[in-house]
Amino acid sequence: MSCELTQSVLHGYIDGELDAARAADFERHLISCPQCTSALEAQEALHSSIQQAALYERAPAPLRSKLRDQFYPPAPVSVVPVRVGLRSSNWRWLATAAIFLLAAILGWRLIPSLGRNRGETELASAIVDAHLRSLQPGHLVDVVSTDQHTVKPWFDGKVDFAPPVRDLAADGFPLQGGRLDVVKGHQVAVLVYGRRKHVINVFIWPATEPDTRLRSGSQLGYNWVDWRKGGMEICAVSDVSSSDLDALRKLFGE
Amino acid sequence: MGAGVEGKDLDVLDPQERARFEQLVLPHLDAAFNLARWILRGRNDAEDVAQEAMLRAFRFFRGFHGGDVRAWLLQIVRNSCYTWLEKNRPMELTTEFDEELYPQPGVTPESLAIAGDNRERLTRALEALPPRFREVLVLRELEGCSYKEIAAITSMPIGTVMSALARARHRLERALAPANAMRSREASREL
Fold first, then answer.
1. Fewest beta carbons less than 10 Å away: which of A112, A132, B40, B176?
2. Side-chain half-sphere of B49: how many Cα atoms within 13 Å?
3. C-alpha pair distances (Å), A166 with each of A107, A177, A233, B138
């Protein structure tokens, strides 16, 4: 018995290229097709072994500098005679003033957003580090349970806030457990969810800023999304697609 | 192989366009090199061909009117790679052969099995695939391209990308399977 979907639609599914309706059709098909199910497992194992092997090869530095020299040769230095007079020095004074004014305006406009971006990058690095740490053998969960009524009380007395714990198995994100972690010096609660063969870490801590727009990005090949709700900051990170993370965020009730 | 392009050919862009090229295209140099490295199966050749492709991109940059700049560049890189292969290793382009009949020299299940780590085994197995299969795997798995981007880069209809990937992954799996089996046999013998 051979299923023709194994050599076609299965791959669109793995690559997240099917629209929602076709993906749902295929997930229904998976339940009754052992061939596609085992092919999916094999393909996901192959995918993660390719990712772990770090096969990407970056351009060597000499190539980069060779190209820069060819495209952007250092400009020949030319000496421009400067006429000194009242008119030109007036202009120069004006030009200098204009440049200072422009710099001041740019500085005023840019610096806060630079600060914000840096905060975002720091958060992303800290979260991705914590995610990688959790993937080391024996580090993923402190309390192993698929039951939200076991995981939620486990945090009592360990952190001074009540993280929202949801069981999302019916939506394709089975709860695997929880653990305590430290991110940027703060103690955080972590919920661990599965998504097919992948692990999603959901970090939760009391927000220090008001609810804002969500932030997301990717670092070292890991996607992350961060949002605040009801006084909690929630940050999910994983190697699943950003659309999967978005689905999880919506299930959390944003 | 020399790039064959002298500086004077590079006066085609005015300073503004040069700045735009630097901002838009140069950041994708890693992608260009990585694709060339995997199509050509070697870093030295890849360095030459990637350099030539960047120079061609520079000269053609005026013809680029927005859109997906990475796909645009990788299309040039890919064309440069195949031109280079035609000239230097035409045998590799008779790709519709079956690799069971014409295995790449040096790649056998035994050599895959003894190749120490995962990275080396995968590298050898990937390099044993015909270039047309290797490139879709590299674009998807390493470069993270969407099917639409792969279609644009390889001039394949978008519907063909999925089946090309399916066949490529199937072949890669098959290339790795005997090695995996042999490794587990080795492991059990050592016990």
1. A112
2. 32
3. 44, 11, 15, 38
Average pLDDT score over residue span A207-222 = 78
Q: Which residues of chain B lie closer than 8 angstroms to A12, CB-CB?
A: 147, 162
Residue A26: in which H helix or E strand, if any?
A: helix A20-32
Give the chain A residue nearest B21 (alpha carbons). A71
Fold of A118-251: Phosphorylase Kinase; domain 1 (3.30.200)
Return the structure tokens found at B170. Answer: 């199937």
Domain ranges in chain A? 4-52, 118-251
| A66·B30 Cβ contact <8 A | no
pLDDT tens digits for range B19-30: 888 888 988 999
The complex's ipTM? Answer: 0.83
The helix (H) or strand (E) run that includes residue A176 is strand A175-183
Enter the tokens of residue A11.
């791959």
Q: Min CA distance, A70 vs chain B (Å)?
A: 7
Non-local CB neighbours of B88 within 8 Å, separated by 6+ positions: B1, B45
Longest Cα–Cα distance of chain A, Å, equals: 93
Residue B189's pLDDT band (cuts 50, 70, 90): low
Tally C-beta pairs within 8 A across A and B: 94
Interacting residues of A166 by C-beta distance below 8 A, sequence separation 6+: A148, A175, A251, A252
Q: Quick one: CATH architecture of B96-191?
A: Orthogonal Bundle (1.10)
Q: Which of these, B130, B97, B92, B124, lies nearest to B109 by C-alpha position?
A: B124
Domain B9-93 sits in CATH 3.40.720.10? no
CATH 1.10.1740.10 spans which residues of chain B? 9-93
